[in-house]
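#structure-requests
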Amino acid sequence: MIHDFRSQKGRYSPSASVINAILVNSTTTMVGFGSMMIAAHRGLYSLGLVLTIGVGTCLLVSIILVPALLTLISSRRAVVDAEAGDVAAEAGAIPVVGSRLPAIPVVEVPDLADPHIDGSPEPDEAFPEDPHVLKWLDQNQSAASDRATDDEWPDAAAA
């Protein structure tokens, strides 16, 4: 219903397809939960009863109350759209037609083709030749060479 409200201009009136969808959805759900009321088990009976009443209440609210509230809200839609258009024209922005949102300001977009637009360093600058970093790299490389290689271990098939 909210999608239907946002897609319409001027005073809101719910479309027949939205009302039909709400009725069919709620009715099938109520029949499904209502079928639990034929059970002999009191727990299933009461669960079916409560859920059927709850879905029926939601059906009434979505068919009566929500469209009434949206109609009240949409009565001021034309006034707000006109005011937003005036403000947008003064600010040099692009107005959003048929929306209650403020106008979109025109913003210059940076060139995204430049890989270093965020100020990230060049690859050569990423790892300067710091003596501490070089010492750490040497230690890790020597530790890796000290580890036993695969050819020093007996083959699994031979064992």
